[in-house]
From TrEMBL, chain A:
The chain crosses the membrane at residues 15-33. Residues 126-264 form the Rod shape-determining protein MreC beta-barrel core domain. Belongs to the MreC family. Keywords: Cell shape, Membrane, Transmembrane, Transmembrane helix. NCBIfam families: PRK13922.12-1 (NF010512). One of its GO terms (biological process) is regulation of cell shape. Gene3D superfamilies: Rod shape-determining protein MreC, domain 1, Rod shape-determining protein MreC, domain 2. Involved in formation and maintenance of cell shape. This is Cell shape-determining protein MreC. It comes from Acetobacter fabarum. GO terms for cellular component: plasma membrane. PANTHER family: CELL SHAPE-DETERMINING PROTEIN MREC.
UniProtKB/TrEMBL annotation, chain B:
It comes from Acetobacter fabarum. The keyword Transmembrane applies. This is Rod shape-determining protein MreD. The chain crosses the membrane at residues 30-49, 78-102, 122-145, 157-178. Keywords: Membrane, Transmembrane, Transmembrane helix.
Length: 304, 187
């Protein structure tokens, strides 16, 4: 050490604090002037300290897990008791369900119930549709080669999404229920009243033409109706919500703004044909030749 | 004839003893700074401690003030400067601001130490409260100055309150620690 006198040493020790203060002011100014350098220094320090920090945070998570484990162990007996009680309850319900299923089978046999056909479906990936005549429509990568036909029904994971309107060999365009061209017969689930769901290009299609004595109730489920023969009944669509008094809309269950996959169902609905009745004029379908309605009234040999 | 190895051996033991003493003294002098550095590392870690951002400067200001008043040899100006710089590098304050503020606190503490040491604990606490509040206010003012934008003063208030509230606890701990050190020193 350099031998210095006591006076010089005292003077130096008195100088240290002001010098350091000046240095810190200098660092403040330098840090403001050259920000990238300051950030680099900061990152260097953080790099050095990162293992320590990760050790600390891992210790914390470990201890939290440990404490949580102890708490869980304390609740174990109680949880076990609750679960066994619930298990007994569920077993009772299982017995009830089995007996109900058996009774249902018996009743169907008694009634000579015609079983509903299980619908065939294909699943496709949705690609965005920018063209086309509809504002709210998506393109699905599944076409006639996969068995998709016009009029089939597209379901998202949680509810109805739309209908197939055009179909190519490898792609199908699906008109969503929110499009302005979409008008579907629906049924209000609690009152079984019929209504029409009309899209208006907004995310919430409107409910129209419901009967005035059975108004839609807020929160009521809306399902498809088989009125026009286009849909099987009972496919969930959404729930009723009132934007304004007297203006019910449907909040669709399906998240129509972010569809990724759709299942296209063929319910075989077009094959349901009403039996011919005298005096009944059948609706013309474009793909079927028009049959003369009154041909049974004509005598044999007079037709054609 | 005396053993030629005898003096050297005696000499060796003597240096060993002094080096141990020196080590002991160095450790004792470094202890507050090391404690503060560990506190800074601990509170800058991504832990879910509520109010960690305000608690860290409060604890650091408390520690520096206490040691500046009661044992300045344990908290030299250079250590305060380096700790402040470390805090700036680890945290998000502009570089050098914490160093400046901590040096000011240290300067006030060591300047007024002979007056403060004779006072009642409550009076010292009140005076420290003023210093802590001033430090928090200065930090807030400097942050506003560098952002050129009036920031929300609520965190600064919170920091000042924490600073004042933590003092008795830390002061008691450090006093107890000093007591133990002195007891070890006397025999």
């Amino acid at each position: 050490m350099v031998p210095v006198s006591i006076q010089v040493r005292q003077a130096l020790s008195k100088l240290v604090l002001p010098v350091l203060l000046l240095m810190s002011v200098g660092i403040i100014i330098a840090g403001q002037a050259d920000r990238p350098l300051a950030d680099k220094a900061r990152m260097r320090v953080a790099d050095v300290l990162a293992p320590l920090w990760s050790l600390l945070s891992r210790t914390q998570t470990d201890s939290e897990r440990f404490v949580h484990g102890i708490q869980e162990a304390r609740n174990l007996a109680e949880e076990n008791h609750r679960l066994s009680a619930e298990n007994a309850n569920l077993r009772r319900w299982y017995e009830v369900a089995v007996s109900l299923a058996r009774e249902n089978d018996t009743l169907k046999t008694e009634l000579h119930w015609v079983p509903e056909p299980t619908p065939a479906f294909v699943t496709g990936r949705v690609v965005a549709d920018s063209g086309g005549i509809y504002a709210r429509a998506v393109l699905l990568v599944a076409g006639t080669t996969s068995g998709v036909q016009v009029g089939n029904i597209a379901l998202a994971s949680s509810g109805l999404a739309g209908r197939v309107t055009e179909v190519g060999a490898h792609a199908a365009r699906i008109l969503l229920i929110t499009d302005i061209a979409s008008r579907l017969p629906v049924e209000l689930e609690s009152s079984h009243a019929a209504a029409i769901m009309v899209g208006d290009n907004s995310p919430l299609p409107r409910l129209l033409y419901y009967s005035q004595d059975t108004r839609p109730i807020e929160g009521e489920r809306v399902v498809t109706s088989d009125q026009a023969g286009a849909f099987p009944s009972g496919i969930p669509i959404g729930s009723v919500h009132y934007l304004h008094p007297g203006q019910p809309v449907v909040q669709p269950f399906a998240r129509l703004d972010r569809l990724t996959m759709l299942r296209v169902f063929d319910f075989g609905q077009s094959e349901i044909e009403p039996p011919e009745a005298p005096g009944h004029v059948p609706l013309t379908r474009p793909h079927r030749a028009l049959t003369l309605p009154f041909k049974t009234l004509l005598g044999p040999g007079q037709e054609g | 004839m005396s053993d030629p190895h005898q003096p050297r051996w005696e000499h060796d033991t003597e240096t060993q003893l002094t080096s141990r003493q020196r080590l002991d003294r160095t450790a004792r002098h470094l202890l507050p700074s090391v404690f503060t550095a560990l506190v800074i590392i601990f509170f800058s870690a991504p832990l879910t401690v509520p109010g960690a951002a305000e608690l860290l400067p409060a604890i650091v200001i408390n520690t520096i003030f206490f040691w500046s008043v009661w044992r300045p040899s344990g908290m030299p100006s250079l250590a305060v400067f380096l700790l402040g710089l470390f805090m700036d590098l680890v945290g998000f304050t502009p570089l050098g601001v914490s160093a400046f503020i901590l040096l000011l606190v240290h300067g006030i503490g060591s300047y007024a130490r002979f007056g403060l040491m004779r006072m009642n604990f409550l009076v010292v606490w009140c005076l420290f409260g003023l210093v802590g509040a001033a430090a928090a206010a200065l930090q807030w003012a400097l942050a506003c100055l560098f952002r050129l934008h009036l920031l929300d003063p609520a965190p600064a208030f919170f920091e000042a309150l924490l600073c004042i509230g933590v003092y008795p606890l830390l002061s008691a701990t450090f006093s107890w620690f000093l007591h133990i050190l002195d007891e070890k020193d006397t025999p």
